[in-house]
Amino acid sequence: MAAEKLRKYFNSIIGEGKRFSTQTEMARYLGLGQTTATKLYGFLDGADTRFSAVVDWLEKLGGQIVLPDEELEQFEMIPKVRAVAGAGESLVTSGKVTGQYAFRESFLKREHIHPEKSVLMCVAGDSMEPLIREGDTILVDESEKGKELRDGHIFVVGLSDALMVKRLAKIPNGWRLCSENKERPDIDVQGDDFNTFRVYGRVRWFGRVV
What we know:
By secondary structure, this protein is of the alpha+beta class. It has two domains: 2-65, no CATH class; 74-207, Ribbon (Umud Fragment, subunit A), CATH 2.10.109.10. The protein has helices spanning 2-14, 23-30, 34-44, 52-61, 105-110; strands at 75-85, 97-104, 118-123, 137-141, 154-159, 162-171, 174-178, 187-190, 197-207. The protein has a nine-stranded mixed sheet with strand order 2-1-3-4-9-5-6-7-8. Strand 5 and strand 6 (162-171) form a beta hairpin. Helix 2 packs across helix 3 (34-44) and helix 3 crosses helix 4. It is elongated and about 55 Å long. The model is unreliable at 61-68 (pLDDT under 50).
């Protein structure tokens, strides 16, 4: 089970569905030496269940990971991405994984959160204060990005090049992106605005360090 959780972690880093036809191709893509790439290739392919290549790769990328054990069997690991909501950057181009955080499976199931389609990210700016503050971490369930938008719920959305956390309100012929902070303006999305309007997912949880 631990090996499967680690494979899922690496798939989230390289991108779901990404496949390499040869070890050399993977080594070039990841910037790894041939020996490390060979071990990692075998691990991801299921032929090698050792964790050595996993640790080697993370050390080269400057990351850290705690190997899963029996204590994490009831948890799902959700990736945290580099993108920052409110900082005017794209989730697509800034989606590099910076870490993994454990959430109890029972909590995710009870709240109907899809861990395999969820990411964590930090929030910048004060437009959603006092509910969500600058520096908070939010969990975004991306399984809802293709569904009908929900009036009154909080989503991570994109408009032109901006990535924002906003509460959505239905208005005639469009949506209003509402700020919790009344000193910050709301944004109406109508007509041609929909050409650059994107919905990345619904915010289902947030946390902060106190």
